[in-house]
């Protein structure tokens, strides 16, 4: 029999506790176009400005999934601080936003091909979001928190890497489990796999995409990659997009969770939706397989709408 608050992976939760997400809050400019871009001239597009950021999206999807106490620590510029705070509260998230007096709010231009796959390309100006530093952290942020989740974008600048070290030390001192979503294969390549893996040592749940899992292990097969990562992390949940998710533990894949049916319009934030819903379900006491199924359903909902946030209302 499992101990209270523990599933057979050894991942510990405090049922009913809060989820604290630390990560990026950005403004998404989503441009949906059909077919290839036309260099040197116009490409007709439908353009919307929406709240985004991997960390903020995860927090909003966790709240949408039913987690009653979701908190977010992030950094924004004065240009959009009030708007982002309002949007987060509307989604059921308790924001702890540090307002940067010098840097503007991060901005991501999302180029979305409106073809069948709804694939997207990001142009990223991280702005204030990666200027989180140890002075923005307080151990009191963990009061009542059952899980700390760190957006992988925090690992891609020196100030926020320093914050990660402080936050991880605080979590370990309190026995709060920590999950990490690596966030970006491109940025991982720039940082270096070994440096990233050293920084996340001691994390209990890793939630990579297929590409990130393969990059982190050097293995071409995502199942082999997830299995290898699970020798270092107690629970690995590898997101596979339209192929669902792999759950790996103890050096092997223990479950393959199918994707939920979806009609893609915009894949922006689908992985964030999975992560937020997965963590909310895990906190509610679900086994990893059940939590991953919730994540797949949230991912399907995400790709059927424009933008990375859940529907409100």
Automatic annotation (TrEMBL):
It comes from the Bacteria. Residues 19-310 form the Carbohydrate kinase PfkB domain. GO terms for molecular function: kinase activity. Keywords: Kinase, Transferase. Pfam families: PfkB. This is PfkB family carbohydrate kinase. It comes from Streptomyces ossamyceticus.
């Amino acid at each position: 029999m499992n101990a209270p608050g523990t599933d057979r992976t050894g991942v510990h939760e405090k049922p009913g506790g809060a989820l604290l997400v630390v990560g990026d809050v950005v403004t998404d400019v989503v441009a949906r176009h059909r077919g290839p871009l036309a260099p040197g001239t116009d490409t007709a597009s439908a353009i919307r400005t929406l709240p985004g950021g991997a960390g903020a999206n995860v927090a909003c999807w966790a709240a949408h999934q039913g987690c009653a106490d979701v908190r977010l620590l992030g950094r924004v510029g004065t240009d959009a601080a009030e708007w982002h705070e309002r949007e987060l509260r509307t989604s059921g998230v308790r924001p702890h936003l540090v307002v940067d007096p010098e840097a503007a709010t991060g901005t991501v231009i999302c180029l979305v091909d409106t073809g069948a796959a709804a694939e997207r390309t990001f142009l990223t100006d991280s702005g204030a979001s990666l200027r989180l530093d140890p002075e923005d952290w307080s151990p009191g942020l963990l009061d009542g928190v059952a899980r700390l989740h760190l957006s992988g974008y925090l690992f891609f600048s020196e100030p926020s890497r320093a914050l990660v070290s402080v936050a991880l030390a605080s979590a370990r001192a309190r026995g709060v489990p920590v999950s990490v979503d690596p966030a970006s294969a491109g940025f991982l390549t720039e940082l270096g796999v070994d440096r990233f893996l050293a920084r996340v040592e001691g994390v209990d749940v890793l939630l990579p995409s297929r590409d990130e899992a393969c990059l982190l292990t050097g293995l071409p097969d995502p199942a082999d990659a997830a299995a290898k990562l699970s020798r270092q992390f107690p629970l690995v949940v590898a997101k596979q997009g339209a192929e669902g998710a792999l759950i790996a533990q103890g050096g092997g894949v223990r479950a393959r969770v199918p994707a939920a049916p979806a009609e893609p319009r915009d894949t922006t934030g689908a992985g964030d939706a999975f992560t937020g819903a997965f963590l909310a379900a895990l906190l509610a006491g679900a086994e990893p397989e059940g939590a991953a199924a919730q994540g797949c359903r949230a991912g399907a909902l995400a790709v059927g709408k424009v933008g990375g946030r859940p529907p409100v209302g």
